[in-house]
Amino acid sequence: MLISKFLLALLLVAIIQVLLFVIYLVTLVISHTPFEVDDLLLFLRSTVLSVIGSSSILMIHSYLVAKTKHFAKSVGFAAIGSFAGFIFIMLGGFINPFFPYSQPMIALRSRALVEMTISEFTIFIVVNALYSVIFYKLTLRTLEMNA
User: The whole model's pTM is what?
Assistant: First the structure.
């Protein structure tokens, strides 16, 4: 049951990201801004990676809702985490690639409009996979304890 909710939330994030990509394309066409296919592919890749970057945040909030039984607390935590992620992105530093709320912004390449290096990509995938698996298991354990 939990995995289906997670996949549904991830699907909704993906749909929103696709809509943002379409808006980006329409804006380019309407404004007559010249663009190359490589630029679009980079943006599309970043869009897909941002969905992956959102997976860890979705699992963290799934755990918070299961643990606290209050959606409002999860939203409050999300607001704080988002602000912290924004600050870490702007400041840079060693914690940025490992902070869960920085992951979607890292995927969208908000600090550097170039492709990820293989080491950045590896860290990105490993960090998101670890957060997702850890908080998935914590959520399952919390739900089982509450049942």
Answer: 0.83
